[in-house]
Amino acid sequence: VALSEFELIQQYFTDLNGPRDDVVLGVGDDCALVRVPDGMQLALTIDSLVVGVHFFADVDPEALGHKVLAVSLSDLAAMGAEPAWATLALTLPQVDTAWLAAFSRGFAQLASHFGVQLIGGDTTRGPLTITLQAHGLLPVGQGLRRAGAAAGDLIYVTGSLGDAGLALRQRLQGSPWQTIDSRLRMRLERPEPRVELGLALRELASAAIDISDGLMADLGHILQASGCGACIQLDRIPLSDQVRTAVESSAGWELPLSSGDDYELCFTLPPMHQQTVARLSENLDLPITRIGQIEVASGLRCLQADGGLWQSANSGYEHFRSHEQT
Ligand code: ADP
Ligand code: MG
Question: CA-to-CA distance for 36 and 136, rounded, in angstroms?
Answer without folding.
Answer: 10
